[in-house]
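Exercise 3.2. Students should predict the tertiary structure of the chain below and write it as C-alpha cells, then compare their answer with the key that follows.

Predict this chain's 3D structure.
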Amino acid sequence: MPATPATSATPAPKTFRVKSFGCQMNVYDGERMAELLGAEGMTAAADGQEADLVVLNTCHIREKATEKVYSDIGRLRRNDGTAPLIAVAGCVAQAEGEEIMARAPSVKVVVGPQAYHRLPAMVADAVAGKRGTETDMPAEAKFAALPKRRKSAPTAFLTVQEGCDKFCTYCVVPYTRGAEISRPFADLVEEAKLLVAGGAREITLLGQNVNAWVGSDAKGCNIGLDGLIRTLAADPDLQRIRYTTSHPNDMTDGLIAAHGEVDKLMPFLHLPVQAGNDRVLKAMNRSHTADSYLKLLDRIRTANPDIALSGDFIVGFPGETDAEFEDTLRLVDAVGYAQAFSFKYSPRPGTPAATMADHVPAPVMDERLQRLQAALNRDQLAFNKASVGKTCQVLVERRGKLAGQLLGKSPWLQSVHFMGDAEIGQIVTVELVDAGPNSIAGHII
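Answer key:
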C-alpha cells in the first residue's frame, strides 16, 4: 500500500458518514464500509451532525465523475477552515489513485472497491499521520474480511458477482472493478440467511453482470444464477428476490424459466440494450443485435407475461447518425419499457471509444436525449396507468411525509404510497387507484 510521508497526527474519529454515489453495488459497498467502521467502535453521524470521518464512495460511470469528486472534497471544508478526515473510495479512487493524493492534500485515504476491507487499518494509519492508497483487486480476500451481517432494512442488497469481462468500448468497469468473479455459493446462502434474520424480507442480488454468476451448490453441482435464486427462495422468511444488472448474453434458459416458475422472483427485469442500431451496437462491442435482443425479450415474456422491463440507453455514441438514433426510438416503441435510464455519451479515459472519431456534437446529443427521454417517460406513465385497478402485494419500506402515509414497492418495482396502519417490513395487499409518472397511489385492502 503506497503511503506518503507522515504528517501531524489527527484525533481518532468517533463518528463517520459514508456518502455513496452511483449504482446499487456502491450502496452495498457503502453499507459494508459502515459495518467495518462500526465494528471499530465508531458510530454513524446523525442527520445534520458533522462527522469526524467522511468516506466518499465514488462512481466513475457518470459524466465528469472525477471533477465532481474534487468538488465534493472542497465542500467538506468547514467554516473554521478545518475538515474531517476524508477517505475516497469506489471506482474513481481505483482509476485515479495517486492523482487524488497529489491534487487533494486533505484526502488521507484512497481505497479501491476491491480493497475497502482495509479501510479501518488505513484510517488508523491516517490518524497516525500516514496517508495511504490501496487499489489492489483481491475480491475474495475482501469478502472474507468483512464482518457478519446484522441488522437489515426490509429490502437488502447482496453482491454475488463483481467485475466484467465484456469490455464494452465505452465502459470503465473492467478497469475499475476487474475481471468477473463469482462469490462462493455457501457464502451467499449464509449472508442471505443473516440478512433475513436481521429483518430483510426482500433481497436484491447484485453484480456488474449479475447473471454471469456461476457456482457449485451444496451437492457440488454446477449452477447458474437461477440455481442460486431457487435455493434462496426456499427460505420461508424471505418473501421477495430481485437481481440487477444483467447482460443479454448471460440470460440462460434456466434463468428465463425461473421468471415463470419461482413465485418469489419478482416480475421485473433490468436488461440494458444501450442502442437500437446494429452498427452502433457492434462499435460498442455489445454481443447482441437489436433483433436478437427483441427475440430474447419475447422468450422472457413467454415465460412470464406479467414481467416489467427496464433498460439502459446511451445516445450520441461516436459516429451515431440521425438514422441510427431513429432505430433506437423504434426499439423503444417496440418494447414499451416500464422504466429506463438514458444518458448522453461521455468519453472515459482509457476506453476505446474515447479515441474514436466522429464524436457527436453536444447540441445534437442534447436533442436526441430529450426525444428519447420523452418516449421513455411516455411508456413509464402508460405502464403505471395500466396498473390502476390492480390489486397487488406491497412491501412497506418506510413512512411518508404525511401522517399515516406509508411507502413501498409493488412487485413491478413501482413506488406506491398509501394511507394505513401497517408495520415497516410488512407485506400488505393494496389496490392501485391512481398513477403518476413516478409513483402510484393505493388503498390497503
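Discussion points: The longest helix spans residues 362-387. The first strand starts at residue 15 and ends at 20.
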